[in-house]
Design brief:
single chain, nine-stranded mixed beta sheet, five-stranded parallel beta sheet, 18 strands, 26% strand, GMP Synthetase, Chain A, domain 3, Rossmann fold, alpha/beta, globular, binds xanthosine-5'-monophosphate
Length: 514
């Protein structure tokens, strides 16, 4: 695929932290890819510089649980097994895995017993994050135990014959005190990786690929939402094909306050030649009338987008390709790694739109994580406002309005969200959180405004921290800031009589309410 010479392959056994492992490798400068364990036969393992086996929910001795493909060890590529990966290696190579006599969950102390690659330069005793029901009680032949937990259970092993390392805990989780150092030790010392990968390298390759694959007589259509992914896609493609790029910005009436004007300003500042603005507010709101099911809303919006795009494409003519700002987690959330990932919400119409239009698909950011897109955006000179702005879903405020989308609820949602953002910016917290917004549904709360009793709307404020949107935690905001947000919303948004703060993390909740 590319000139990236050192790649790490993460083999997914259905673990909840698989993406974190991939991200940590990238943070350490190593390009990483995730593949479902059932698909590794499609890959040539020798093309990779290191393999990491993820955690997973099954027991290695359970019927039908994923087993270790012998090729993984036979390939000779250095391997790190994490949690289920650790047990898989032990089980496959003749060790013994049993139900753990005591469940180790959460922060656990481990004691390093022998000199080892993974723990090189680290203290003898340290805290790690455990989450397992099974445990390796007998290491396979040729393996030595290098660390045990405070309860005496095997915490890490290393092969004396091959570059194979295993850990029962999760080095990729922040609660593991020296997790990053362990991963770095594996990648640099254990697997001998030397390069330091930068996202822009991949983008330069993509620019070349696009130049070669899109004939000079053909045009590319790109929908921009104003978010960083689509605007960065526009910047990348503009470098690749110049004025053969047509950007389409559809105002579906579900945007944040002031967004239309701001996005148009940015598009102009980027020097794009062909910007098509479509005011489709009434069409979308009309189509959404009476629709309250979240997935149905997404379908209606998706279908109308396609209709609008078809109209624009036929007006331009010569359009053979459509570009999308799909990023790596979008592909994986849409099932790109195979069957162990599940789609909770049909977020991204990955592939749907081009199929419908009979066009080729270009996804320049398909291998990048969000923070890497931000890095590329900065290098390409996008305005800082775009780089810093929180992610915003394609169906816009429709997924922040519970029940039917009406003009009145939209207005409440828009005004209240603007207040949430303003207050976060004011308190210097905007950039420290992943997303912050207001949600409105059909619940009512009796309020007293002046001498009047009034049945008004309930607004829920949702502010979350996250690394990639796949998991998230609610932000422990200072009471003072919450109070200011709440008072401003009830004072400035006429029909609101109650403000609530959402205090559930993801999982079990999702970030958006719908
Ligand atoms: P959830 O709500 O699934 O959101 O926890 C995870 C991330 O995805 C965004 N999101 C969407 N983005 N179309 C999008 O383009 C959608 O339908 C959609 N739903 C959620 C959400 O804002 C968060 O960043």
């Amino acid at each position: 695929m590319s000139s990236i010479k050192e790649k790490v392959l993460i083999i997914d056994y259905g673990g909840q932290y698989t993406h974190l492992i991939a991200r940590r490798c990238r943070e350490l400068g190593a390009y990483s890819e995730i593949v479902d364990n059932s698909l590794i036969h499609e890959l040539r393992l020798s093309e990779y510089s290191a393999l990491i086996l993820s955690g997973g929910p099954k027991s290695v001795y359970e019927l039908g649980s994923p087993q270790l493909e012998p090729r993984i060890i036979e390939s000779g590529v250095p391997v790190l097994g994490i949690c289920y990966g650790h047990q898989l290696i032990a089980n496959a190579l003749g060790g013994e895995v049993v139900r753990s006599p005591r469940r180790e969950y959460g922060r656990t102390r481990v004691i390093v017993e022998e000199e080892s690659v993974l723990f090189a330069g680290l203290p003898r005793e340290q805290t790690v994050w455990m989450s397992h029901g099974d445990v390796v009680v007998t290491p396979p032949y040729g393996f030595r135990v290098v660390a045990r937990s405070e309860y005496g259970l095997i915490a890490a092993m290393e092969s004396t014959e091959r570059p194979v390392f295993t850990v029962q805990f999760h080095p990729e989780v922040r609660h593991t005190e020296h997790g990053m150092r362990m991963l770095e030790n594996f990648l640099r010392r254990g697997a001998g990786l030397r390069e330091r990968w930068r996202p822009m390298e991949r983008i330069l390759e993509i620019i070349e690929e696009v130049r070669k694959s899109v004939p000079e007589t053909e045009e590319v259509l790109l929908g921009v939402s104003g978010g960083i992914d689509s605007l960065t896609t526009a910047a990348v493609l503009h470098q690749a094909i110049g004025d053969r790029l047509h950007t389409v910005f559809v105002d579906h009436g579900l945007l944040r306050a002031g967004e239309t004007e701001e996005v148009m300003r940015v598009l102009k500042s980027m020097g794009l030649e062909n910007v098509h603005f479509v005011d489709a507010r009434s069409r979308f709101l009309e189509a959404l009338r009476g629709v309250s099911d979240p997935e149905e809303k997404r379908k209606v919006i998706g279908a109308l987008f396609i209709e609008v795009f078809k109209e624009i494409a036929s007006r331009i003519g010569r359009v053979r390709y459509i570009a999308q700002g799909t990023i790596y987690p979008d592909r994986v959330e849409s099932g790109a790694t195979g069957k162990t990932t599940s789609v909770i919400k049909s977020h991204h119409n990955v592939g749907g739109l081009p199929r419908e239009l009979g066009l080729g698909l270009i996804e320049p950011l398909r291998d990048l994580y969000k923070d890497e897109v931000r890095e590329v955006a900065r290098e390409l000179g996008l305005p800082e406002w775009v780089v810093r702005r929180h992610p915003f879903p394609g169906p816009g405020l429709a997924v922040r309005i519970i029940g039917e989308v009406t003009e009145e609820k939209l207005e409440v949602c828009r005004k209240a969200s603007a207040i949430v953002e303003e207050e976060l910016i004011r308190s210097g917290l905007y950039e420290t959180v992943w997303q912050a917004f207001a949600v409105v549904g059909d619940d009512r709360w009796v309020g007293v405004k002046g001498d009047e009793r009034e049945e008004g709307r309930v607004v829920i404020v949702r502010i979350v921290s996250s690394e990639d949107g796949m998991t998230a935690d609610w932000v422990r905001l200072e009471h003072e800031t919450l109070d200011r947000i709440s008072r401003r919303i009830t004072n400035e948004v006429p029909s609101v009589t109650m403000v609530c703060y959402a205090v559930s993390s993801k999982p079990p909740s999702t970030i958006e309410p719908c």
